[in-house]
Amino acid sequence: MIRSKLIKWLKWGMVCCMLVPFLAWQAKDTSFQPTDTKGFIAEMQKQFAEVQTIKKKENHREELERKVRDTHRMLMHDYPVYYDWWLQDGNDAKDIKDGKDVNWFRGSFSRQLSLRMQKLNITTAVNDTPESIEAAFQSYLKACERRRAERLETFTANQPEIVFTKFRTLRPSFFAYTEGVSDARAECNYFA
User: Where is the signal peptide (predicted)?
Assistant: First the structure.
């Protein structure tokens, strides 16, 4: 009696052990899907305010550099899609040689938001009030989502067979099937 119940529980345990990894494998990875807009907006405002506070101190160079670096890392880790959009539209470098400007801590936060909204042809007015900034930020993020959908629409229609690998990309040795087809002796362009 006890033995049959034990065997029954072991069978159910094995079924669960087989089923759980399969279901986890089938689950869609949404870690790069933008989700928390309010959290992103609040975090951006908080980080901007903290950097402005550091700028008011004397001899703040090292502390400011550390804070800006940590802010970029934290925002890129916690909000990769939203922050990438923010950096894409942040080309307000003062000098041509600077190229794209990722130092968005100059001026006021509403100015930085206005510059990005102008690039997307959004006509929402931005004041320094929290309600205005949040409404403008929401419209900015919606415009970015529309831009992303437009960009990916043609890509997925024309190239549906391309696979995106998230963590471990394929090593070049995978492509050895098409390498070495010339007459060159000892041609080896891949990891052995």
Answer: 1-27
pLDDT at residue 95 greater than cutoff 80: no
Give the chain's radius of gyration (CA, Å). Answer: 25
Query: Against a cut of 0.70, is the pTM above it?
Result: no
Structure tokens given for 79: 């909000």
Task: Give which of 138, 140, 92 is closest to 120, Cα–Cα.
Answer: 140
Give the domain ranges of the chain.
37-144
Query: Which residues touch 154 (CB under 8 Å, ≥6 apart)?
Result: none
* 70-91 average pLDDT score: 88
In this prediction, residue 143 carries a pLDDT of 92
